Amino acid sequence: MKGLFITFEGIEGCGKSTQISLLNDTLLSKGLPVVLTREPGGTQIGEKIRGLLLDVGSKGMSATTELLLYAAARAQHVAEIIRPALKAGKIVLCDRYFDSTAAYQGAARTLDENILKKLHEIATGNCLPDITFLLDCSVKTGFERIHNQRGKDQFDRLELESKNFHERVRTGYLALAKQEPDRIKIIDATRDIQEIHGQIKNITAKVSLRGA
To answer: Given 3-state DSSP classes, what are the helix, strand and coil percentages for the chain, each rounded to the nearest 5?
Structure first.
């Protein structure tokens, strides 16, 4: 029996990390086998790459270098964590996946879409999520939340990008959702945390395990 692959996406400060944690707790309370992971990261190698990608000291990193590092981390992540868990019939909850690459490196960095697709094929063998929750809010709202949680002196390399950059990221995400409405579910991230969790929980309940 194959498992279920669920990803969470959104701009900085959208609340996806909070919501993926709540869903994880809910599924575990039902006795379901769940693997909670994140990108970039999820593996020892991936976490090292994450540190390099988000370090403000990597400010001079080129867009192509950034793209290839994300692809490398993802290749290790899929091989070591995601694919084995799915084969074991587990539910994989992943904080960011390849839609982040399409939004950040594609829409915002304007890298070629065909190259992004080819890299995804190479890195993951076209391992696709069954469902993706896109937590959507304005860039202004997202960064107000981050400012309230921690000062700007604690922002990572991507969070320090311009407002226009993050607007392009959001536009890219919404375009992806329009292209794949069956997989990508837009969630209004400005609502109450528990209300959002309820919606995500209800949608997840309707998605049965693949091959079950």
So the answer is: 55, 15, 30
Q: CA 209, CA 154: separation in Å to the nearest integer?
A: 40
- Report in angstroms the alpha-carbon separations of 42 from 30, 176, 188, 200: 24, 24, 27, 23
Q: Domains in the chain and their CATH numbers?
A: 4-205 (3.40.50.300)
0.70 surpassed by pTM: yes
Q: Are 81 and 75 in contact (CB under 8 A)?
A: no
Torsion of CA 122, 125, 126, 130, to 10 degrees: -140
Would you state the pLDDT for residue 27? 96
**d(C-alpha 108, C-alpha 172), whole Å:** 7
